[in-house]
Amino acid sequence: MGWDWKRLGRWAGRVTAPLLALAAATAPALLPRPARGQEVGRLLVRITDHREAIADFTRLPVTIAAVGVHPAGQPRREGWIRLLVPAPVVDLVQATREPVLLLEGSVPPGAYDAVRLEMDRGRGTLATGEEVPVTVPSRGTAAVSFRVKAGQATVLTLDLVVHDLTDHPGKRYEVAVRRATVAP
């Protein structure tokens, strides 16, 4: 007797959704606290999806649990500020039609030089009705220079892309960060 992966996936979704909601509710506690009297800046992170292999899908939900921003001047392995995503499941098909607001959070003012997404693999539904796994080859890191000013909003838009690698060994689709743009 084999595993019923579909049932296991539904069970995992029911178990993890409340845990992710709890994590999102406690997210402010994980952010660095500004010094007394220091202002913070607002960072809005939006997701779009570049029209490459996404046209193969009718539905492609991915889980983005957190966004990390890296202060300029810090060693790349240190200093990341982790912002939890309140509603971590994003349908990338919808993101081709309009940008999806992923999060709005407070960060210390200053210069930043990179952003990364903590994405899990997902399962998408192809136009044929077939469900296929979608992998994330890395943490979804992109180099992007931007500055957050105290008391102001900075909008960071991450354009994701779905690559069709079904003609390669492994026969899969992958999600990656295509580019990151900033609007003050």
Helix-strand layout with pairing:
Blueprint: H1 5-25, H2 27-30, E1 41-50, E2 57-59, E3 61-71, E4 81-84, E5 89-91, E6 100-107, E7 110-120, E8 122-126, E9 131-135, E10 141-148, E11 153-165, E12 172-183
Parallel strand pairs: 1-11, 9-12
Antiparallel strand pairs: 1-6, 2-8, 3-4, 3-5, 3-7, 7-10, 8-9, 11-12
Write structural notes for this entry:
By secondary structure, this protein is mainly beta. It contains two helices and twelve strands; from the N terminus they run H-H-E-E-E-E-E-E-E-E-E-E-E-E. A hairpin with a 6-residue loop joins strand 11 and strand 12. The radius of gyration is 18 Å and the shape is elongated.
The percent range for strand residues is over 45%
Helix content: 10-25%
Determine the mean pLDDT. Answer: 80
Assign an overall shape: elongated
Taken in chain order, the helices and strands follow as HHEEEEEEEEEEEE
Can you tell me the residue ranges where pLDDT is under 50 for at least 5 consecutive residues?
8-33
What structural category do the secondary elements indicate?
mainly beta
Main sheet overview = 7 strands, mixed
Distance between the termini: 57 Å
Question: Reading side by side through the largest sheet, how are the strands ordered?
Answer: 2-8-9-12-11-1-6
The count of helical stretches stands at 2
Number of domains: 1
**Rg calc:** 18 Å
